[in-house]
Amino acid sequence: MSSNGKWAVYAMMSVEGDGEVIVQKTDEPQTKKSFPIGSTTFPSIAFSENGRWLAFKQYPKESEKKANSKNGSKGLKEKLILLDLDNDFKQTVFENVNSFSFNGKNSTHLGINLGNGVANGDAKGSDFLLVHLNSDKKQNIGNVLEFAFNKTGDYLAYSIDAANQSGNGAYLLQLVTGKTEILDSDTATYKSINWTEKGEAFALLKLVKDKSFKQDHGKLLAIKNLSDPQLTIYDPKKDSINFPKDYTISPNRKPMWSEDLTRLFFGIHPLVPEKKQNKIATQQTLRNVNKDSLERVNLEKIKSDSTIKSLADLQKAIAKIDSTKPKASPEKKDKTKPDMTIWHWQDSRLQSRQQVLENQDKNYSLWSMYDTRTGKHTTLQDSSMRELTIMTKEKFGLGVDFQEYELDINLDGQNYRDIYSVNLQTGERKLLFKKFYLPSFSSFPRISTDGDKLLYAKDGHFYVYNLETGIEKNLTENINTSFVNLEDDHNVEKPMINPLGWSSDSKFVLLRDGWDVWQVPVGDKGKPINLTQNGRSEKIRYQMRFTLDPEEKGIDLSKPIFIRKYGEFSKKSGISKISPGKSGLIPGAKSLIWEDANINRLSKAKNAEVYYLSKEKFNEPTEIYITDADLTDPKKITQNAPDAPKFKWSSGVRLVDYISDKGDTLQAALFLPAGFVEGKKYPTIVYYYEKLSQTLHNYSTPGFSGTGWNPNVYTSNGYAVLIPDIVYKLDDPGMSAVWCVLPAVKEAIKTGIIDEKNMGLHGHSWGGYQTSFLITQTDMFKAAAAGAPLTNMISMYDLIYWNSGGGNMSIFEASQGRFRGAPWENWDAYQRNSPVYHVKNVNTPLLLLHNDKDGAVDFTQGIEYYNALRRLKKPVIMVQYKGENHGLSKLENRKDYSVRMMEFFDHHLKGEEAANWISSGVSKLKLDEHLETRLFDTNN
Questions:
Q1: Which has the closest alpha carbon to 414: 496, 492, 494?
Q2: Chain centroid, CA 107 distance in Å
Q3: Strand-pair category, 429-438 with 446-447
Q4: Which of 50, 286, 349, 814 has the greatest number of beta carbons closer than 10 A?
Q5: What phi and psi values does residue 839 have, to the nearest 5 degrees?
Q6: pTM, whole model, 2 decimals?
């Protein structure tokens, strides 16, 4: 919404094809007007803060992208459309646009970074267009590398990067007067402009080429007193006392002012010298030069040649001579260095993980501080403290290091950290917690809004630590509830429920016990208060607070707060409001909306009491509703999926209550097929991934997913869909599926909706594992499709999760695997829960999807299971899409697999004739012909 609440804008994107931007008045939806936007995944749209102007990018059409596919995006340009909403949608079009921005609160200017128009030279900047919105005048500034308006919109800071660095510099333009200040100009690159939050100062970097090193020499530029700019330049080369030797300012971290404008924070990193050969080494090389070469050249001449200044120059001269020689025989060739990796047992990170993080490690920088009052530089961290967060108000920094525990973390998944405080006036470091345990990141210290306190959890309780006084206080020991996440069934000790956060005055924290929200004072005055009160008794989970002010600093308890709530067993959802009192919030949450639907996304216009929320159901697309602060009479303003009436949709949803074989009270979501008739039984697909009954009211846009699965596609095609919950017992992830899924199916059959003779199973990744395991334990299902499944927990344990480069060990012991210990410590459990060791029991036809570049579940897992089934002549088909990862990304592959999976289930569960790839397979020689015959019109 616009800041004044008068306008709403949204993009409607096609699953395939072009989209549109729709603009309308919030109180008059009939004023709707649409504009073509082309084809994109993430539209770029922005209002000016005064609500008068709207700008959005227009992208190339889908047809243009396909026609230009051989060249990638090269040659295709993006446009910017500017609308004057106060002047009947008057439209201005700007060609060849990269990025754009309005000038904050003032809303008088629009900055546009145009496509690079430099024909030659080494300029990195491009044309920048400054549009004067009220007069429609346009000002072009050439070779702009970066630009940024301050918050109020009074000033524009920008940097120039021109050919041969001529005129490069940092500039400040006062928008009202048009006056431009040249803050600094040099043969250098100026980048990383960073305004303070209030917009009264900014900082940036100046990078100068230094032939002695691989990196540029960095300098810090800081500007304040904007009406008469005061420039501070810090040059590390001139600070031999405090700045560490062989370091320079890093370009990989934006510099920033402290809130009080006394200090600057920025990154530094080591310098890497260019490899140059000294005179002695050059002479040594000369002595070792091939004898034949020396016979052809006057050695003294080379020694005295002024153009030969390095080993590289010498080698070029010799190479020129040697080029006249006959080629050496293979055995006399110089050996080149091998292309290899050394894996060592003491590596804290696997080599594969190091490869994934190589660029991140190369760009790593340390926080440093420069005090403009004293002119002193202080390095705030070193290699013994790899992480540092500059805390609010810049009084303290929060330092974290896990290098001592990194190897063990990567092996068993149990997370530990050393946590420090850093005084941001002196740089003094203090160890707060040694080997701090993190069963989940809900326990990790959270910084107070005043910047001198930490909220964290240990041993099942929340604590506050005061950095000024060093006093620690247990906040929850006397509260008659637990804040431990009892629903978390991973192999970790006392994981906590995520807190809502600090109050804006840092006097309270808002905590959740899984049902209710508690207001807990951090000082000695006041008592903990249950704000929502009815959560536990009515089995309502108060889940999250809607952040209505994106610029807020903590939770303002002088204003109402809005909480999303969810009925654990009713599956209803809604929003409640908690009102403010004299000393915090008043107990008792007022229910504003509570429906058999998925209610979410509450938001507010920045400068008006106009609100919107989203609502959806399984068979009703997500829509946006405009309302007031009490969510009174919400009015729908969108029309999502306008072609929806043309299609068949599920007739509705049902909830199935059941008890697992281990006594857990669970639920399954049952989605009825389109055209459902009471008393008729329907073929059914059972789908799962841990606990998913909460998706009862979730809408899924029909389309071709990366896993082949879309529940609305199946209900549209006459299937019922059952999604049961699975909860886990340690050491039995596979058996847990048996104990939860089979009772759910048996209970669902009692509804009379499911045809028990025609049921199929499907899951992907962890769900694929559950599918592969379930068919070794039961013959209830007539067909199954497993995507990217884990099939051998023992062999999988020692493999690598290639997408991250880490090992699977920690996943098995502390995450999804839920095993206690490694296979050699817990062999029976690993074997008992591995599908491949029970393969002889499989009688269910299986469609297996596994791709050769799967970076999550190794391709060998699919091969193991396929080959074992094939050895036993069990009915299995494996499809592999070359080069694809854990899910399918290419549209043609997503389409192909979605259709094949539907054909597979249609054959086995509906009795339709089997396609030839199902009945007899396809040989390699006939594969191209087979794929040609299956191509279908993408418009249908």
A1: 492
A2: 31
A3: unpaired
A4: 814
A5: -60, -25
A6: 0.90
Question: Contact at 8 Å (CB) between 732 and 738?
Answer: no
- 288 pLDDT exceeds 70? no
Residue reference for tokens 């929320």: 613
CA atoms of 573 and 460, how far apart (whole Å): 29
On average, the pLDDT of the chain sits at: 93
Q: Which of 918, 919, 935, 889 is nearest to 41 (CA)?
A: 889
Q: With beta carbons less than 8 A apart as the criterion, state whether 112 and 94 touch.
A: yes
Determine the Cα–Cα distance for residues 656 and 754; give it in Å rounded to an integer: 12
Query: What's the pLDDT at 294?
Result: 42
SS3 annotation, 175-236: CCCCCEEEEEECCCEEEEEEECCCCCCEEEEEEECCCCECCCEEEEEEEECCCCCEEEEECH
Angle between helices 733-749 and 766-774 (to 10 degrees): 70
Question: Between these two residues, 303 and 438, which has the higher pLDDT value?
Answer: 438
Structure tokens at 499: 């807190």
CA distances from 79 to 14, 38, 67, 68, 537 (A): 19, 10, 19, 17, 56
Distance CA 426, CA 423 (A): 6
Residue that is written with structure tokens 């007067």 in the block: 177
Whether the CB-CB separation of 814 and 843 falls below 8 Å is answered with no
Give the pair of three-digit tokens for residue 728: 């886990």
| Contacts of residue 906, Cβ cutoff 8 Å, sequence gap at least 6 | 717, 912
Q: What is the average per-residue pLDDT within 648-661?
A: 97
Which of helix, strand or coil describes residue 811? Answer: helix
282 pLDDT more than 60: no
User: What is the distance between the alpha carbons of residues 19 and 571, in angstroms, rounded to a whole number?
Assistant: 33
User: Residue 56 forms beta bridges with which residues?
Assistant: 45, 81
Amino acid identity for residue 762 in this structure: H
Listed in sequence order, the residues at least 6 apart from 829 whose beta carbon sits closer than 8 Å to its beta carbon are: 731, 732, 819, 820
Q: Which residue has the tokens 């499911």?
A: 754
CA gap 61, 176 in Å, rounded: 39
Over residues 224-237, mean pLDDT: 97
For residues 555 and 449, what is the distance between their CA atoms, to the nearest angstrom? 9
Please check whether residue 783 is in contact with residue 909, taking contact to mean a CB–CB distance below 8 angstroms.
yes
